[in-house]
Amino acid sequence: MSAAALPARGALRAAWPWLALAAGSGLFWSFLDARLTRDLLDWLPYLASGFVMNVLISVLAMALGTLGGVVLGAMELSNARVVRAPAVAYVQLFRNAPHLVLIFATTYIFPFEIVVAGSYLPFPDWLKAVLGLAVPACAYVAEIVRGAILSVPTSQWDAARGSGLSRGQTLRWIILPQCLRRALPPWMNLYASITMSTALASLVGVHELLHAATDASTAVRRDDFTIAVYLTVLAAFFLFCFPISRLTRRLERRFAPR
Amino acid sequence: MAQDHTPRPILVELRDVHLSFGAAEVLKGIDLTVAKGDAVSIIGPSGSGKSTILRCINGLAQPHTGRITVAGTRVDTLRTEAERIALRKRVGIVFQQYNLFPHLTVLENITLAPTRILKVPRAEAEALARDLLARVRLADKVSAYPGELSGGQQQRVAIARALAMRPELVLFDEVTSALDPEMVGEVLAVIRELVRDGLTSILVTHEMRFAEEISDTIAFTENGRIVAQAPPAELFYRSGNPRIRQFIGGFQGYRDAVQHREGI
Ligand SMILES: Nc1ncnc2c1ncn2[C@@H]1O[C@H](COP(=O)(O)OP(=O)(O)OP(=O)(O)O)[C@@H](O)[C@H]1O
Ligand SMILES: [Mg+2]
Q1: Which residue's CA is minimally distant from atom 12 of ligand 1?
Q2: Which domains does chain B have, with CATH numbers?
Q3: A160, A209, A242, B75: which has the fewest Cβ within 10 Å?
């Protein structure tokens, strides 16, 4: 994915260390206060259960997004207009839609339960949030895949088809394996970005970390605790996303065209 | 080069082949004949359509009019992907830029098409690959990746990859043009041996001395036409066509360099 596809990425990267420093020193300061420390430790399991939800939503959204995105990305490169046009339209539409709007949309468009083979299955809000994030993830992954496929020289197609491989076989055995290396770093960037967006699900009532923090702060009703709890939220996202972003940079350097 | 002069069956025949890219007419009526066991070189100025002729022969490009026959198959009338694949199994091609698959080892590069397309058992395909690698003098590079090889080595692997399909015909498209001068000789030596062993081949080349040595006939292309196709001695030394004489004359200094390089 180009830097333009995720304009916030660079800014976030630059801001993260400072936020982390602020959160870290804030937390450190709060541990000097015994009562605050005790309250925070009391609420920690509850906060952790919230964060599990963030991770779950991000992993599922990314899995769906990857499946859909690979198909869409290949469709975008089809010779047939009827195949190409819908894929291009989807990607352009959802690559440029705010994640929060999409989460609201999926929350209110889908019913709270669905009928499968005569029985009612609950369709909880967190699953709708998964869909809300999978929709743009598909579009981003499609762009990553499309770019990666195009970055493989056409001479590779010639060589493969000259050896008797079909278009599909060439894509599967020759082109996509070469894409993997090129697509992995932007794909991981996208994962980090989707993970951060899972906090938006709190706004539609999903019990995730930010929501848990709000619960805690309303229950304790003390300013110093509120500050400490939100700093904990920041620290949790940082500790999860920062290693991914570091690893991505390492991979980017390793896979840089030689 | 075939030594006897009994007439041999025709393997490749192009008649009045025309092809355009958009408004640009690139092939303007190509006639070319290749007998089984022959080595035919195509020489001519850059942009005259040499690569396009090769791409038409293995169905990578589709002529607009004209007739192309390869081993009894009418290539110009092939419509489906499956038909073209059937053709390409029998016609190997080697490119100027080697085009090895960078994510596969040398052995995997060579065995991919035989095992996946021809369904040759893996053990058999690998044995053949090792034989071929020994033939191109790269027996010790079986598990190397293309990025770890020199240009000349990569090109020899590419030749082994083409031969692994046991093709009836191999097309060589300027296979030494991207190589450093000291590697040209090793690749030409491999091709020379294959031609001596009776491989039918069409070679686009700028190596005049080499073309003269190994070819049964040489075709001279200019501006989308084959101006002449004749045995080397005739084309090189007895051609009445001033353009051919000028083109070959332009390579005179180059030829000396080749002779020096190959130690001939
Ligand atoms: N895919 C394509 N689309 C448009 N034009 C093309 C395409 N392929 C080749 N051409 C044009 O067709 C002409 C002949 O190309 P071709 O590659 O066959 O020439 P060549 O004789 O092999 O030249 P060279 O010695 O430089 O390799 C050139 O003018 C080239 O620009
Ligand atoms: Mg060419």
Answers
A1: B26
A2: 8-90+170-247 (3.40.50.300), 100-166 (no CATH)
A3: A242
